Amino acid sequence: METLNQTAPTQDLFSGLQIDHENNSYLNEVARWSKFLSIVGFVFTGLGTLGLLISLFARSSYESFYTPFWQQSGAVVVMIGLLSLCFFPCLYLFKFSNKMKLALRTDDQYSMTTAFKNLKSYFKFVGIFTIVILAIYVIVIIAMVMLASRNSMF
């Protein structure tokens, strides 16, 4: 008896996928906006770094006697961590923009793949960061509820 679920020869689903003129213009516009947003992010990261350096030099002159060293270095480590959290998504977005513009200009498949790889890295980074922030919010809310219920008992 013949089975009904006979499969056709396997075909690559995306072998016929092409970027037409309309999609090309959309991707080009996305690349321009992502470049703009990444540059703005770089500027704010640079301003934060400049502010960190200025505060380090200003603190060293008048607070070194009043603030313990571990507090000063702890604040610097936290600021460096926050600045790198801002820098890397901007870098992924900037690389996406440059590679996408190159791919659209030269019809280079490798550049297109690299562009989308950077875009994936951007969204993965931002997504994981969002999950971490949401988890911190949940922990803080639970701690606040526990503290409020504890304080209301006395």
Automatic annotation (TrEMBL):
Superkingdom as given in the UniProt entry: Bacteria
Record protein name field: DUF5362 domain-containing protein
Pfam families documented for this protein: DUF5362 (PF17319)
Keywords, alphabetical: Membrane, Transmembrane, Transmembrane helix
InterPro entries per record: DUF5362
Residues that span the membrane, as ranges: 36-57, 69-94, 122-148
UniProt source species: Niastella vici
